[in-house]
Design goal:
By secondary structure, this protein is an alpha/beta fold. The protein has 2 domains: 7-141 and 322-334, Rossmann fold, CATH 3.40.50; 146-310 and 347-358, Dihydrodipicolinate Reductase, domain 2 (2-Layer Sandwich). Helices cover 29% and strands 25% of the residues. The strands form 2 sheets. An 8-stranded mixed sheet has the order 8-9-10-7-11-12-13-14. A 6-stranded parallel sheet has the order 3-2-1-4-5-6, with helices on both faces. Helix 1 (18-27) links the parallel strand 1 (7-14) and strand 2 (39-47). It starts with 6 loop residues before the first strand and ends in a 13-residue tail after the last helix. Bound molecules: NADP nicotinamide-adenine-dinucleotide phosphate (NAP). NADP nicotinamide-adenine-dinucleotide phosphate is lined by residues 15-19, 48-50, 53, 89-92, 94, 112-113, 139, 141, 184, 197, 285. Residues 15-19, 48-50, 53, 89-92, 94, 112-113, 139, 141, 184, 197, 285 line the site of NADP nicotinamide-adenine-dinucleotide phosphate (NAP).
């Protein structure tokens, strides 16, 4: 369908937390500032567990738009006829129930990472979204940033050959000794710890580089090895390392790590090929640049040429995923071809296995659907 008018997507926002504020601030930036003319975002409704918080959020982040409604329950957001798509920014272990409620109300859903607590919850949501004919996506914003698109083009041009080894880390010293134990980063009932909060980012680079590689033919890694260091404060993982071996068709290994007790590493990721390297700046959730190095001859390790690509734009980078959601909904798609259900499912299966090997079990009742 072609039209001169941009497609308007009307969002209902669930929660008034830190990431909801960033998402709303970004989607309210004029898309033309990022050369997008085919879609526009309207924030229709903000939903909080507390009506006063919702009103305060509208006043603070609504850019003076007096038509934005503020509700004191999430249910009112799901029921609102002016909402096309629901954005979910609650703690991890609430994502399943919030997404389920939105889908059952026939709303399209963009849900924060990690999309659920486990793979079984995600499978259940994937089926429910299909049955209800709604779009559903994990908010894996890094995948839609201009840098990620340029990175994919370098991989696709084939000069480097297939990837062999990748190291990616996301660490952030969150000063956990001074956080309340009820904070979502520390509380196992909210899926606390490094893996679920920061682990999606090393995962997205492994998925973009290895899982999506044509030689991989859509295979999941044949082997996963993982180890967790837990904090004595609440027993959640403070530092986690996991190695994914793509040994079925592509022969490649991703060594991934995350920590809530260390500052960021530089670079954020390093990807090695027989013909060169790609070095990604930190932080890997929103790198500002990456460098491609080409060797003088296969396997020599001598860098003959290198090129650094830098990226900047207005906003925090969360709006690119929103544009993808709008286009998919406009075009009647139920999932994104860039970050489809299979990729989120792989992420959740890997996290289940990493937690199993690391001995991190959620308290009883946290997981809403068990495998
Ligand atoms: N994409 C990114 O860059 C990014 C960055 C940070 C976090 N995240 C993800 O976004 C989610 C939220 O993170 P955040 O940092 O925004 O957390 P946050 O600041 O603690 O906000 C979470 C919000 O969820 C609502 N909520 C509902 N039930 C809750 C409960 N039992 N305990 C606490 N809050 C509850 C609250 O809003 P109301 O009181 O208004 O209902 C709260 O403000 C997490 O899954 C995280 O992984 C993504």
């Amino acid at each position: 369908m072609s039209s001169d008018q941009p497609f308007v997507l009307r969002w209902g926002i669930i929660s008034t937390g830190a990431i909801a504020a960033k998402f709303v601030s970004d989607v309210l930036i004029d898309p033309r500032t990022r050369a997008v003319g085919d879609v526009v975002h309207k924030v229709a409704v903000i939903g909080s567990r507390d009506a006063a918080k919702a009103k305060e959020f509208v006043n603070k982040f609504g850019r003076g738009d007096r038509s934005i409604k503020a509700y004191g329950t999430y249910e009112e957001v799901y029921a609102d006829k002016d909402v096309d798509a629901v954005y979910i920014g609650t703690p991890h272990t609430h994502h399943y129930q919030n997404s389920k409620d939105a889908i059952l109300a026939k709303k399209h859903v963009l849900c924060e990472k990690p999309v659920t607590s486990n793979a079984t919850e995600l499978k259940s949501l994937m089926s429910l979204a299909k049955e209800n004919g709604v779009f559903f996506m994990e908010a894996m914003w890094t995948r839609f940033q201009p840098l990620a698109c340029a990175f994919k083009r370098v991989l696709e041009d084939g000069r480097l050959g297939p990837p062999v080894s990748l190291r990616a880390d996301l660490s952030d010293d969150l000063d956990i000794e001074n956080l309340p134990t009820s904070h979502r980063i520390l509380d196992p009932k909210l899926g606390g710890g490094a893996l679920l909060d920061l682990g999606p980012y090393p995962m997205v680079w492994a998925i973009m580089t290895m899982y999506e590689h044509p030689d991989n033919k859509g295979e999941e890694p044949g082997h996963i090895a993982a180890s967790m260091l837990k904090t004595p404060i609440t027993g959640v993982d403070a530092t986690t390392t996991f190695v994914l071996t793509f040994n079925r068709t592509l022969k490649a290994q991703a060594i991934l790590s995350c920590s809530i007790t260390l500052p960021k590493t530089r670079p954020g990721a390093n990807i090695r090929f027989r013909n060169g390297n790609i070095i990604i700046d930190a932080p890997i959730y929103k790198p500002g640049a990456f460098t491609v190095e080409y060797f003088d001859k296969l396997g020599s390790g001598n860098v003959e040429t290198s090129e650094t690509k830098e990226f900047s734009y207005i906003g925090g980078g969360w709006h690119f995923q929103a544009d993808e959601v709008a286009r998919c909904i406009r075009d009647g798609k139920l999932e994104s071809s860039e970050w489809g259900h299979d990729k989120s499912l792989l992420e959740m299966k890997v996290f289940d296995e990493v937690r199993r090997q690391g001995g991190y079990k959620f308290p009883d009742g946290v997981e809403q659907v068990l495998g």
